[in-house]
Amino acid sequence: MKPLLDVLLILDALELEKEGSFAAASAKLFKTPSALSYTVHKLENDLNI
């Protein structure tokens, strides 16, 4: 059974909100901005927005 939402996706999105930019958040999360963008896209799909 798949969980409703992946907690790690939510944490990444919260870090993005906190930092205010993809570049700053991705540096803090040790991800590329592209990977963070994919994370946000996946979270949006999971939330149907």
Automatic annotation (TrEMBL):
- Coiled-coil intervals in this record? none
Q: Which GO terms describe its molecular function?
A: DNA-binding transcription factor activity
Q: Locate the transmembrane regions by residue number.
A: none
Q: What Gene3D superfamilies does the entry give? A: Winged helix-like DNA-binding domain superfamily/Winged helix DNA-binding domain
State the source organism's domain of life. Bacteria
Q: Which residues are in the HTH lysR-type domain? A: 14-49
The name on file for this protein is Transcriptional regulator
Upper lineage:
Bacteria, Pseudomonadati, Pseudomonadota, Gammaproteobacteria, Enterobacterales
